[in-house]
Structure prediction request, 273 residues.
Amino acid sequence: MGHTEPTTFYDQHPFDWVPPDASEPIDSTVLRPLLDLIESLDTNSLVLDIGCGPGRVLGVLARRGIRCIGLDRSRVSVGLAAERYHRPGVVGDNLRLPFADGTADVVISDGVIHHTENPQAAFAENCRILKPGGRMYLAVYKDFGRYPWLYKYPGALIRSGLRDRWAGPLVALFAQLPYFLVHFVRSRGRRTWTGARNLFYDYFVTPHVAFLPRGVVEEWCAREGARVVLYEKNRGANVHSFCLVKDSRSQPVRDPQLPFATEALVEQKRSAV
Ligand SMILES: C[S@@+](CC[C@H](N)C(=O)[O-])C[C@H]1O[C@@H](n2cnc3c(N)ncnc32)[C@H](O)[C@@H]1O
Prediction:
């Protein structure tokens, strides 16, 4: 896989904050628009979770017996997801997905494209692998609310502190520890130190972040022949959600030289699900 990095940020800090045991119900970590979409699926739908991380959403799909495959650039995350939820996982890049055009009934992209080097290209790839008439759930960082400010200002201090050998312990004491305590209290004691630490890194330290206005996403949808059927601001969350349907007359517009995946690979994955 040409674009796969040997070690990614999320290999070192996987988005791993929900313990795989039942101490924090996994469904409660999924936003309502995605849960509604999942609840509307039948078990024969093929769902591709692009940027699946350690499998939080794959777990919700797997529990309902829905056929699904996870893909992530982080090998560590794909390994955790496969080990926990026994669904096939692929290490690959959202910017060059190893799936043929029109493969998926449903594509899930939950908090992913804003971390890629080119969110629009990642979105176009998600559309390409979706069947005409297929559905996509997309959640991206809002361009409004408190998070853009937090990432930019306190986040800049934290990132520069972590690069400095002497300031590192100060970041742990004055930023990471209070962050953990807030999460610990809010989760009624369920959030672990490691879980809060992984969230902290995703929140403040992650190297690529784009804040995407609703209008921009709608423009991309129009270009790719997709229609927004539901928009949700998700009050209190950092992401806004879009549910899309790909136009049933939509023709694939490009024919990327796929590095390895073909219908055959997908068939093979299907039989493994
Ligand atoms: C914030 S996490 C979200 C994980 C998961 N979707 C969830 O909601 O639990 C972002 C994930 O996107 C993945 N990611 C970032 N850039 C990527 C890319 N270019 N291709 C594939 N995955 C990518 C990261 O490795 C990470 O696991």
